[in-house]
Amino acid sequence: MGRVQDKVVIVTGAASGVGKEDALLLAREGARVVLTDIDEEAGRELARKIGDGALFLRQDISQEADWQQVFAVAQERFGGVDVLVNNAAILAYGTIEDTSLELWQKIQRVNAESYFLGCKYAVAAMKQRPAGSIINMSSMAGIGGVSSFCAYSASKAAVAGLTRSVAAHCRAQLYKIRCNSIHPDGIATPMVSKLHADKNAPSAYIREKDPKQLQARFALPSDIANLVLFLASDESRFMNGAELRIDNGYLMWAD
């Protein structure tokens, strides 16, 4: 217990799925958590469940003003920020042939541009602290590519590139700020469950996600949260710019 004792952590997309599990685990390990999401009801309920060490703020991560407010409130309430978990994202079907420019831009704005804003304000805040850790949720789709998720795959590849750039900058400036990315394959979350229930899902996607593969490949949110906790803690103090696959060997899957 106490692996992130008294660290102040911002978790985006904290109302459900991986973000919720991250927040619960970090709080159990001693962190004070700032939970953000557009789902106010679920976010406030989670903050109440965690207790005095939690604060919920409504945040549209695509809006710079919202990022400024989140960091300002965290500074006022808890005295600063030590860890940012860039977790919130959106997912939608679309190959290169049927993805509209509007959908492409929407996904890049939420999944890539928002992470840029988070990193930008996190670096500014963490320079004032003894050390800092930025944890960016990318995806195996950003490494291997998924034909049915063209825009999503591109956005997550952008997150990986952003992570390396931030890590290199912090090292060059001698900031004690680390930036690492996590690359899961499928995770059993409400967002993914909705896709499986979608009658318009591409046939190739359905074939790939047969019951055997669901059991073999899909992680639980807690599997991801355990890695987030490690990266948030001082145990990972020499890890910077790493791309951490958590995919049960997906890239080596051959049959």
UniProtKB/TrEMBL annotation:
Coiled-coil features, chain-numbered ranges: none
Protein name, UniProt field: 3(Or 17)beta-hydroxysteroid dehydrogenase
Family named by the database record: Belongs to the short-chain dehydrogenases/reductases (SDR) family.
Domain Ketoreductase, chain residue ranges per copy: 7-190
Alphabetized GO MF terms: oxidoreductase activity
UniProt source species: Solimonas aquatica
Pfam families: adh_short_C2 (PF13561)
UniProt keyword Membrane present: no
UniProt entry keywords in alphabetical sequence: Oxidoreductase
